[in-house]
């Protein structure tokens, strides 16, 4: 292998260990792969609650995701 080649084997093993199958792995764009492989930057609970409040799934109906949060706890 030359210096310019990507480590496909290591990338595939990392994807498999993260639960990404071969078909899904090969459909990923390089940008998507870099985002997945970067790790670290996860959304915190507070940000998720803010997004659920700002963008409800349906007007006037309770959703399973929204009903499982205790919004009063974070305020």
TrEMBL record:
<protein>
    <submittedName>
        <fullName>Uncharacterized protein</fullName>
    </submittedName>
</protein>
<dbReference type="InterPro" id="IPR019056">
    <property type="entry name" value="Phage_TAC_6"/>
</dbReference>
<dbReference type="Pfam" id="PF09550">
    <property type="entry name" value="Phage_TAC_6"/>
</dbReference>
């Amino acid at each position: 292998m030359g210096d310019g080649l990507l480590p496909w084997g290591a990338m595939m093993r990392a994807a498999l260990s993260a639960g990404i199958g071969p078909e899904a792995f090969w459909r990923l764009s390089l940008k998507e792969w870099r985002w997945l492989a970067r790790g670290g930057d996860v959304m915190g609970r507070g940000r998720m609650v803010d997004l659920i409040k700002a963008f409800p799934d349906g007007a006037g109906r309770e959703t399973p995701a929204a009903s499982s949060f205790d919004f009063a706890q974070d305020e």
